[in-house]
TrEMBL record:
Signal sequence extent: 1-23
Domain of life (superkingdom): Bacteria
Organism of this sequence: Corallococcus exercitus
Protein name: Uncharacterized protein
Key words of the record: Signal
Region: Disordered, residue numbers: 57-104
Length: 104
């Protein structure tokens, strides 16, 4: 019994330490995607119109992250999954726009 209690304690402590790290992952992805957009503008891979559209979509994801955190202070699993899916879609749009052959 004592052994199971220590295992449960270790699992709970591990989760409480891991949750902020998982939430920080969304922030890291946002920073990375912002850098990709900026790099695309500098290199000429993105037109002005494409950059504005991607920036708007990027800000919408950022707003959603802030709103979800404002509700209860953190992102739960469902919120993280939804945001992750939106970040995946935005990442694909950035790649598609950067490699579509248009130039500014």
């Amino acid at each position: 019994m004592k052994r199971n209690g220590l295992g449960m304690l270790a699992a709970v402590l591990g989760l409480t330490v891991a949750l902020p790290a998982v939430a920080a992952e969304a922030d890291k992805r946002q920073v990375n995607q912002q850098q990709r957009i900026n790099q695309g503008v500098k290199s000429g891979e993105l037109t002005g119109r494409e950059a504005v559209r991607l920036e708007r979509q990027h800000r919408a994801v950022q707003r959603e992250i802030r709103q979800d955190r404002r509700d209860d202070g953190h992102l739960d699993a469902a919120e993280r999954a939804r945001i992750d899916a939106k970040q995946d879609a935005l990442s694909r749009r950035i790649a598609r726009q950067k490699h579509d052959g248009q130039s500014r």
